[in-house]
Amino acid sequence: MGIPFLLLTILLLSLQCNASPVDGNGKVANLLFYLHNTHNVSDPSSVLVAQNTNATAHARGLVPFSSVYVFDDVLTEGTASTSKVVGNAQGFYIETGKDGYTILETIDCEMTDGPFKGSSFLMSSRNQFSNPTRELPVVGGRGAFRMAQGYGLLRTVCVDCLDAVNPSKGDIIEYNVTLYLR
Ligand SMILES: *[C@@H]1O[C@H](CO)[C@@H](O)[C@H](O)[C@H]1NC(C)=O
Ligand SMILES: *[C@@H]1O[C@H](CO)[C@@H](O)[C@H](O)[C@H]1NC(C)=O
Ligand SMILES: *[C@@H]1O[C@H](CO)[C@@H](O)[C@H](O)[C@H]1NC(C)=O
């Protein structure tokens, strides 16, 4: 226990993201990044893999009930998709709400840059994406995030964004994640 904790302490001391001690038992880290989810483009980062045949006919919201999407999304430092890539998020979301605006989202975020490079954490919960802000619980992680707990605050930056700094039309979501490390 002593050595891993020491290594973690050394790792955290070299962070540029915010990490500070919490009551002597662990550390808290805050990660802020932007997820880019593209769907109606030639090489989309999320694809529809299944849907009940009646889903579209009964659709009440944006995403027909029962739709299953798999995604591999880029995570960047800034809101622009052309800004520095800091990680990627792989997972799936299922339209579990008959309202057409609520997905069950399971997302594994792996950092590919910075002090947490190679480590990932998993969030999983329902996500009513029609709300401007949402919360997802962190249910665990790998590497530096092993046994992590925490929460992510999500904010929609824009939907179907297409401008000079976002050439691949997609949705941009801010993820502000607070992790309690052990
Ligand atoms: C997908 O994009 C095409 C052209 O860019 C557009 O005509 C079509 O309406 C879009 N479909 C959806 C579902 O957004
Ligand atoms: C679709 O709806 C029809 C009519 O309500 C029903 O007979 C059929 O079983 C449904 N199909 C599926 C796959 O749920
Ligand atoms: C991110 O979340 C933390 C804690 O929940 C909060 O203190 C901070 O202001 C948030 N940052 C942004 C950019 O929203």
Automatic annotation (TrEMBL):
Signal peptide: 1-19
Keywords: Apoplast, Secreted, Signal
One Gene Ontology cellular component annotation held by this UniProt entry: apoplast
InterPro entries xref list: Allene_oxi_cyc_Dirigent (IPR044859), Dirigent (IPR004265)
BP terms from Gene Ontology: phenylpropanoid biosynthetic process
A Pfam family of this chain: Dirigent
Chief localization: secreted
Gene3D superfamilies, per the entry: Allene oxide cyclase-like
Keyword Secreted: yes
Localization annotation: Secreted, Extracellular space, Apoplast
Highest taxon in the source lineage: Eukaryota
Family the UniProt entry places it in: Belongs to the plant dirigent protein family.
PANTHER family: NUCLEOPORIN-RELATED
Functional description taken from the UniProt entry: Dirigent proteins impart stereoselectivity on the phenoxy radical-coupling reaction, yielding optically active lignans from two molecules of coniferyl alcohol in the biosynthesis of lignans, flavonolignans, and alkaloids and thus plays a central role in plant secondary metabolism.
Subunit-level organization: Homodimer.
Protein name: Dirigent protein
